[in-house]
# Entry
Amino acid sequence: MENIDYTSHIKPTWCPGCGNFGIFTALKQTMAELKLPRENVVLVCDVGCAGNSADFYNTYVFHALHGRALPPAAGIKLANHDLTVIAIVGDGGLFGEATTHLMNLIRGNHNITVIHHNNYRYSLTTGQYAPTTPKGTKTPSTPEGVIEEAIRPIEFVLSCRPGFVARSSALKPAHLKDIIKKAIVFKGFSFVDVLQPCVTFNKDQTIAWYQNIVEEFNGPLSLEKAKELAVREDKLPIGLFYADKRPAYHVEVSTLQQGPLVKQKIDKIDISKLLEFYK
# Structure
């Protein structure tokens, strides 16, 4: 197969030094190494800095509403589970608005990959606090400090008994590519928490801060060990926390046993009895 270019003609508009560039590059390299045909890849993007990447990939892309990337991603996969479906979401959209969607897709083990861009801020709107922002942090929307406790993404996802949970860093492209590749190949729900600097609006979690606090480990771990590592505060461990091989959602749906819905012949299905019942 010839080399595939996954980059569109639109130039990225992120701030110079933004962590999104590292994630963007790692995902393109991953798709290239897996030799994924562009027509078989669907990216579902949320709103925000991460969601702006909808314009930058040369694949099928669905640009969803804020906090609503996961439902269409799941729907696309159910309609045609031969596709590779990847949701690209930020910490605000995912944990500020989409926690119910996230929880239920994990429970069902829907075979999609969620790449969580985690920069601890709502940066598209100049750095307001997000659900992942540490308690006490002063931001434009919390001048006296954040009151709420921060959500710890890995801890939250592990509590829902996921299929695949990992974390990496936009500052470690080789590590990130390896993690994303494992997530895409995994047959079931895969969640990748990506730590990324926001060099413009987040002056707390700087590049130097990440370099000091990020620490690699070898996984996967048991669920109990993964939970212990997820709440560590002196370091931010990156690696594969947990992997549980169980049937993906579409495998257990009887109507999909014959293949993806888009490939099933429906012209000979008789619904006259159903119509009569609901008269």
